[in-house]
Amino acid sequence: MATEFIKVNPQIEKHIALIELNRPKELNALSRELMLEIRDTLRVLDEDDNVRVIILTGGEKVFAAGADIKQMATATAIDMLNIDQFSTWDQIKKTKKPIIAAVSGFALGGGCELAMTCDMIIASETARFGQPEIKIGTMPGAGGTQRLTRAIGKVRAMEMVLTGKFISAEEALQAGLINRIVPVEVLRDETLKLAREIAKLSPVSVKLAKESVNNTFNSTLDEGLVFERKNFYLTFASEDQKEGMKAFVEKRVAEFKGR
Ligand code: CAA
Predict the structure, then answer these.
(1) Computed from CA positions of residues 84, 90, 140, 57, in that sequence, does the dihedral angle turn out positive or negative?
(2) Among 48, 204, 243, 251, which is most exposed with the fewest C-beta within 10 angstroms?
(3) Could you tell which of 25, 34, 69, 112 is best to mutate to test the pocket of ligand 1, judged by most ligand atoms within 8 Å of the CB?
(4) What's the pTM value of the predicted model, to 2 decimals?
(5) Of residues 65, 67, 123, 195, which has the active-site annotation?
(6) pLDDT, tens digit, 9 for 90 and up, residues 225-239
């Protein structure tokens, strides 16, 4: 697995993997090669039984300043169609394990879209979110118009997408785009804390619950409720459910094995 543009620690702590974008000079611009590395890494981590939660970060200075503009600048529409670079992004959505984005500094364009494709976002007070593609003569192409609108509502998303203006971490919190704001020096620790909470639970239930929440965006309420109910029943096929309920009755901490 090539990792020239990202750093990967598959076991930063027990059951927790960390992916760090690593193109600091380009403000972690999301080149095609970088996104291929993310895709391949997520595939591997999703299949690794030792991994239960994945953290994706750009480090303390910048999350990502968007897709690589220099790489796209002279492309024709047919180049874009043939390269179909955003298809590599589908793996993020397909990943069954929870992915937490730890965002500090700019999360712009594809950077904002990358964070929003993750399941939760912890931001430092320096985080700035935006979809500035309109300012360079294009528009969001990796989910920005869809995920931002679902996350913060039509009028706020419309303003961001049509003006390209950035919002602060505080505004992002108020709008419901992120889970919380923490001081930059504890961003990694606070994200790990959340990851740890999830990593000690049943990986089977976590996977099914994540799938059910995400299904909200693709179904009517009735369809979503049926889907949820079936996933709920399915948890009863797991040893983890038996262990979880038995441990509750016996007043002890459950030990989940992911089976
Ligand atoms: N692609 C390629 N290179 C980028 C980049 C990007 N998205 N963003 C920044 N860089 C490069 C700059 O060109 C610069 O490189 P050089 O040192 O070689 O000149 C380096 O990173 C540092 O950037 P700046 O000097 O511009 O840093 P700054 O602090 O003055 O400004 C910024 C920071 C406001 C983020 C500014 O860099 C900027 O506006 N970046 C572009 C943001 C943007 O438009 N993103 C959307 C991209 S399109 C997209 O993402 C499509 C999609 O839907 C997926």
Answers:
(1) negative
(2) 251
(3) 69
(4) 0.97
(5) 67
(6) 999 999 999 999 999
